[in-house]
Design goal:
The complex is a heterodimer of chains A (230) and B (458).
Chain A: H1 9-40, H2 43-74, H3 78-111, H4 119-144, H5 147-155, H6 157-177, H7 182-214
Helix pairs in contact in A: 1-2, 1-3, 1-4, 2-3, 3-7, 4-5, 4-6, 4-7, 5-7, 6-7
Chain B: H1 4-30, H2 35-46, H3 48-55, H4 57-65, H5 75-81, E1 86-90, E2 101-105, H6 107-113, H7 122-125, H8 129-141, E3 145-149, E4 159-165, E5 175-182, H9 184-219, H10 226-258, E6 267-269, H11 270-280, H12 282-288, E7 291-295, E8 303-305, H13 308-325, E9 331-340, E10 353-358, E11 368-374, H14 409-419, E12 423-428, E13 434-441, H15 444-448, H16 450-457
Parallel strand pairs in B: 7-9
Antiparallel strand pairs in B: 1-2, 1-5, 3-4, 4-5, 6-8, 9-11, 10-12, 11-13, 12-13
Helix pairs in contact in B: 1-2, 1-3, 1-4, 2-3, 9-10, 10-14, 11-13, 13-14
């Protein structure tokens, strides 16, 4: 009944990486859907994406199990160990991205009950598109093992931070202008913060990809914007 | 008198000659250059019989490959050259959704997804969950289906993916065909049509709402109030006129679009037409105290092939805009120059932002007459320029001003100029006015006399 499958070690490692890429695709879709649901006040889409989060959790558990099994049975060394570990770590980061997207979905449901916030929504959507493109790029870099692309995602993280900073100010002005908007404003602030966190996870993944390929951490200190918030 | 040995020698030369003649054929048959000396030697040694045997296959081969009908269609290269990305996937081990591999990807697919390896895993090429699920269904369930998806990332593109099982589900490993089609343009056109309808109905509803409001008031509370009646009727007339203008513009736009691909008939002098329009608009100009500064060539110098009514409409719309945005007692400059090349005219103000809204198809040697209309109004920001010919588009910040325009004027200009195979460009510095330029191909007679006129001018 069960076929006896003889598979090479290399093939098993590739399979693990392919699972991570599949998970990346899911996480990307979750993030993309959360931005779209938020921008268009699309309640059914937000509900659907909240429901889909379990899938990401399940794949993350699978990847972790497979990686631990590989470490136990194959005792990978050097490059192979890095590949196994980075698969596990990237899966963790992707799972966090999924959680943040789910949280944006939940806030979208709440925001849909109040009045549309106008131009701030557009700024957040713009930031969301930027973050989504970062996530796409870093998963592309992982898929194709391209160091240059990983590094470019890593160095450009400040752009996301700048977006967040200006959004923060915009939202403060918005809330000060009319105290009735504070409830919605607080949720919008969290949506922006979540997007900023997703951007950070993309940067983390870029670091992991760099370490996986070269065996060294990215040397210089990442350019970091002084934040308004701790 | 040739001796027998001489005759034999002769025959040998003939044979070598034959061998020489056959060599290219034989070469083609063998596909290698080394065949040539071997053939010559063997021809000399073995004589006619062998020579014939050697020669025989070559002509036969060329004959059989000659008829073109016998060649099968090159399906592999047809697939390879298809514009849509086409891929064939082979199912991976059961329970491993990331294990599916590509066994074929045509050029379009390889370029789009930057596929490096022929046997890449599908997941490394497309990781959109909707598409991978689609392929899973085709491979495992044997179900065909399609899905629209937008890959994440900067350029907004929309694709439809279609997956079909290639063999029955019992065959191992299962194969699936995946074809993508770019739907970006279609989606954009759909969105534009929806926007247009929404805008048109909104623009029509506003004056209609005000009309019915006033009618209600006149029949009710203001029934016997003569002052109010006069005032309301004046407003109602303005609103009714506005609706009429809007409907006229919409109808003329659709008429222009119907004729857009039919070449215009007739001959118009651009400078004369511009003066006619300005004369007809004298009351409007006087009302705002606006003066026109002219700079035109002598009569007949800018004669273009065109539909007079439509050319008049273009000039009228442009001058109308210039008057609308000019300050009180401003100056509008109207210039006609001819002949000019088909490129957008050079910018006068180095700080100005310029954009060609429509450029004619390049035809070498074609000459144009150019009309430029400048005003001293508030101008437009750079980012507004590309949207100017969009229907109902208004530059932000100017919305609250007098709304005598319909938002269709420049769209009409663009369509008319397009029908006349001309060009439209705009340049503007914010706060210092805007210049609109339109240029049309000169009439055939004017084209011919061009060298003479250059000689005269220089």
């Amino acid at each position: 009944m069960n076929e006896h499958i003889v598979r090479s070690y290399e093939d098993e490692l590739n399979q693990l990486a392919a699972e991570v890429v599949r998970m990346g695709g899911l996480a990307e879709a979750q993030v993309g859907d959360s931005i779209q649901a938020f921008a268009r006040r699309d309640v059914p889409l937000a509900q659907a994406l909240i429901g889909r989060d379990i899938k990401l959790d399940a794949i993350e558990a699978d990847i972790e199990r497979a990686a631990i099994r590989m470490i136990a049975l194959r005792q990978p060394m050097a490059n192979d160990l890095r590949r196994t570990m980075s698969a596990m770590k990237i899966a963790m980061n992707l799972e966090r991205c999924g959680d943040l997207a789910k949280n944006i979905g939940k806030r979208t449901l709440i925001l849909a009950e109040s009045e549309p916030a106008g131009p701030v929504t557009r700024s957040i959507e713009r930031m969301g598109r930027l973050v989504a493109s970062r996530l796409k790029e870093v998963i592309d870099a992982y898929t194709a093992s391209e160091i240059d692309r990983a590094i470019s995602v890593w160095t450009r993280d400040t752009e996301v931070d700048e977006h967040y900073e200006s959004l923060f100010r915009e939202l403060l002005t918005y809330m000060m202008g009319d105290p009735r908007t504070i409830t919605a404003g607080a949720h919008l602030l969290f949506v922006a913060k979540n997007l900023e966190r997703i951007g950070d996870h993309a940067t983390n993944i870029a670091e992991i990809v760099h370490f996986e390929i070269t065996g060294q951490a990215i040397a210089s200190e990442r350019p970091k914007l002084d934040s308004l918030t701790p | 008198m040739p001796s027998p040995s001489d005759a034999r020698l002769d025959r040998l030369t003939v044979l070598t000659g034959l061998a020489g003649a056959a060599a290219p054929l034989a070469l083609a048959a063998f596909g290698q250059a080394e065949a040539l000396p071997a053939l010559v030697v063997s021809a000399g040694m073995a004589g006619l019989g062998l020579m014939l045997a050697r020669r025989a296959p070559a002509p036969v081969q060329t004959v059989t490959s000659a008829p073109p009908t016998a060649a099968p269609l090159p399906f592999a290269s047809i697939l390879e050259e298809l514009e849509d990305p086409v891929m064939v996937t082979e199912a991976g081990a059961p329970g491993e959704p990331a294990g599916h591999r590509l066994i074929f990807a045509n050029r379009a697919a390889r370029l789009l997804f930057r596929i490096q390896r022929q046997d890449a895993r599908l997941i490394t090429v497309i990781r959109n969950p909707q598409v991978t699920e689609l392929v899973d269904e085709a491979l495992i369930g044997g179900i065909a289906g399609h899905v629209a998806f937008e890959p994440a990332g900067a350029p907004e593109r929309v694709w439809t993916a279609t997956a079909r099982p290639l063999a029955g589900p019992e065959s191992r490993p299962a194969l699936a065909l995946l074809v993508l089609r770019d739907q970006t343009d279609l989606r954009r056109a759909e969105r534009m049509r929806a926007d247009f309808l929404a805008n048109a109905s909104h623009e029509l509803r506003t004056p209609l709402a005000s009309l019915s409001g006033f009618i209600e008031t006149l029949r009710g509370p203001a029934r016997d109030d003569t002052d109010a009646r006069d005032r309301f009727l004046a407003i109602m007339q303005i609103q009714a006129e506005r609706m009429a203008r809007l409907i006229n513009d919409l109808m003329s736009l659709s008429r222009i679009e119907l004729n857009e691909h039919i070449a215009p008939q007739g001959r118009v002098d651009l400078a004369l037409a511009a003066t006619d329009v300005a004369d007809a608009m004298t009351p409007v100009l006087r009302g705002k105290g606006v003066r026109i500064e002219w700079n035109t060539p002598p009569s007949g110098g800018a004669s273009i092939e065109g539909d007079r009514d439509q050319i008049i409409q273009v000039i009228q719309n442009l001058i109308d805009n210039a008057v609308k945005y000019s300050p009180q007692d401003g100056v509008i400059r109207v210039e006609v120059s001819s002949p000019v090349s088909g490129d957008p005219p050079a910018v006068r103000d180095p700080e100005a932002a310029r954009l060609a809204l429509l450029t004619p198809e390049h035809r070498p040697g074609e000459l144009y007459a150019l009309l430029r209309i400048s005003d001293g109004g508030p101008g437009m920001p750079r980012d507004a320029l590309p949207r100017l010919t969009e229907r109902f588009y208004r530059v932000e910040g100017q919305k609250s001003g007098d709304r005598t325009g319909t938002g269709l004027g420049l769209a009409i200009v663009k369509h008319i100029v397009n029908r006349h195979r001309g060009g439209v460009s705009v340049e503007s510095v914010e706060g210092r006015g805007a210049t609109f330029s339109v240029w049309f191909p000169l009439a055939a007679a004017a084209q011919m006399s061009w060298p003479e006129r250059v000689a005269k001018a220089s």
